[in-house]
Write a structure and sequence with these properties.
The chain has helices at residues 2-8, 17-35, 37-69, 73-82, 87-116, 120-140, 154-180, 183-189, 193-205, 211-215, 217-230, 236-262, 268-290, 294-305, 307-332, 337-359, 365-392. It has 393 residues and is mostly helical. Helix 11 (217-230) packs antiparallel against helix 17 (365-392).
């Protein structure tokens, strides 16, 4: 406005320098708003950016909350350290590690007992009685989730009884083999367990197994045959007992899996606890029928070793047996029966190696080669199962 007034007075006087400078300053001031236009637009967009960040934070929190809601009690504890996403894998790995460690300790101590007290029916019964008593004590102390969890109905009893019967028979059969032959031979024969699981999974659960998986079982069978034929401690009694154990444990795996799918509000720990209790009533009659002379043998051992030493060894091996089977059942609840069988075979690698070192067993060259082939076949089987899963995904 001032510039216009100056021009209208141009005939009377020239604009002063002061007026010109003032006009220039005014011109510069009119430019300033144009320079800050972009920052103003950026500031205007900031609430939208903050809202987007809040939305992402809320979405991530909701996803984490959902993941937490799907975890079991043990996974929730572990998730505080490794996160909800990794918790299931970490818990499963921990269960398998505990299963392996306790099983190795059990096998070594169990064989030591059989070397001076060869009564597998009685020892097997002690194992399950100690396990049932352990669960009862834990239950009465208030840790119900770590034992029987809750009473079961008659219908649930009927569901649990078949795997419990297979558990009892398979356990006795395995101990008959352990008492008759070297631990390494029994566990080499029991590498055939995946073959039984594959067949029974098809017959009982209707789960088909791909041809490459079936073919991968062949090296295991060849390896077992080679190792058994050259084993110095081989006898048919121990071999057949191990095969019976394979068959019955295969039934136990698939029937237990079906029981876990059908039971409500009773986890794998509770199912195994009830399985152990029922097994007591199945095993004990076998002691009376098959080992009537065991009572005199018990008296002799107490006289030689003392009640505390002899009783303590039976008690400790019973606790080891229950705990390793508990972790095996916890693992079974998280994987398929076939994968569980594979875990069993890998476990046997550890047991065979430690038993040979601990007892100093002499293995022939053919036995070593056969065992290696059986274990290599196990690796091929594992890889075939993985490849089949990827193909189906």
């Amino acid at each position: 406005m001032q510039a216009v007034m100056v021009q209208s007075q141009g005939l009377m006087a020239r604009p002063s320098a002061k007026t010109t400078i003032s006009s220039m300053r005014t011109s510069k001031m009119t430019i300033v708003p144009k320079r800050i236009a972009a920052p103003v637009q950026l500031r205007a967009s900031m609430p939208s950016i903050r809202a987007s960040r809040r939305s992402l934070t809320i979405t991530a929190a909701a996803a984490d909350a959902f993941a937490q809601s799907t975890l079991d009690p043990m996974e929730k504890i572990v998730s505080k350290v490794v996160g909800a996403k990794n918790a299931p894998t970490v818990v499963t790995t921990a269960y398998i590690a505990m299963w392996y460690g306790l099983n190795v300790a059990f096998n070594l101590q169990n064989k030591v007992i059989f070397n001076y007290f060869p009564y597998p029916w009685f020892v097997s019964t002690v194992h399950v009685i100690v396990g049932a008593a352990y669960c009862a004590i834990v239950y009465l102390l208030g840790a119900k989730k770590a034992s029987y969890e809750r009473p079961i109905t008659m219908q649930e009893f009927k569901t649990i009884f078949p795997p419990a019967a297979m558990h009892a028979i398979g356990h006795v059969a395995a101990n008959l083999s352990f008492a008759a032959v070297a631990i390494s031979l029994t566990h080499t024969v029991k590498t055939l367990e995946p073959a039984f699981n594959v067949i029974l999974s098809k017959l009982v659960l209707g789960e088909a197994t791909a041809l490459p998986v079936m073919a991968s079982l062949l090296p295991i069978m060849v390896g077992v045959a080679m190792a058994s034929a050259a084993e110095l401690s081989f006898n048919w009694y121990g071999f057949i007992s191990a095969m019976i154990s394979n068959l019955t444990f295969g039934f136990r795996a698939v029937w237990s899996k079906r029981a876990m799918n059908n039971m409500k509000n009773l986890g794998s720990t509770g199912i195994y606890a009830w399985t152990t209790l029922i097994s007591c009533f199945i095993c004990f009659p076998g002691v009376l029928i098959c080992e009537p002379g065991v009572w005199n043998a018990i008296s002799d051992q107490i006289a030689q070793k003392g009640l505390a030493t002899f009783g303590g060894s039976l008690l400790s091996v019973g606790v080891l047996y229950h705990l390793y089977n508990q972790f095996a059942f916890n693992t079974l609840a998280r994987v398929t029966p076939v994968s569980h069988g594979v875990c069993n075979v890998v476990k046997r690698i550890c047991i065979i190696a430690t038993s040979v070192l601990f007892f100093g067993n002499v293995l022939t060259t053919q036995t070593k080669i056969g065992t290696a082939i059986a274990l290599a076949g196990t690796y091929l089987y594992t890889e075939a199962v993985k490849a089949n899963k990827k193909k189906q995904a």
